Amino acid sequence: MEPTQLPLRDIHLPEAISWWPFALGWWLLLILIPLTLFALMWLYKRLTRKTAVKTAKKLLIQFKQDKAMADADKVEAISALIRRVAMSVNPRSDCASLTGKAWLAYLDNSLEDNAFSEGVGQVLISAKYQKNIADKLNIDEFIVLTERWLKAQKT
């Protein structure tokens, strides 16, 4: 028989491998990568919030134990510390621009009483402008109030 007369068919190749549906490993990667990124962002935020409050507590203890530091300097340092913690823990737009009575009212929101607006915390408004703050202020009460406020912060 002649080769041209043989009933042969042409070679046919299998279809190309489709990219759909994904293999199981790709599905796992598609799920795990966003979950991992979300968990890392959540952990970072949680650690930085705790770090701000923990650092503030340590600094407050240092201010409390420092006998060489004047009471006026302690009040000024604690005021700056409270402001930094407030901006670290809460949205900056909520507290960065507050001054005077509005600032004290904002600080009172974390506590059950109005210790900043009506109590020893009022010193935050007037301490910079008074010469002899030590005569009118019990620094230990102010430090205790600051400790209460730090404990009340969401961590």
User: Span from first to last CA?
Assistant: 91 Å
Number of strands: 0
**What oligomeric state best describes the polypeptide chains here?**
single chain
Amount of beta strand? under 5%
Could you say which overall geometry the principal axes of the C-alpha atoms support?
rod-shaped
**SS summary, helix count:** 7
Low-confidence stretches: none
Provide the gyration radius in Å.
32 Å
What's the gist of this structure?
This protein is an all-alpha fold and 155 residues long.
Could you please describe the fold and organization of this structure?
By secondary structure, the protein is mostly helical. It has a domain at 50-152. Helix content is 62%, strand content 0%. The model has no long low-confidence stretch (mean pLDDT 88).
Name a few traits of the molecule.
7 helices, mainly alpha, rod-shaped, 155 residues
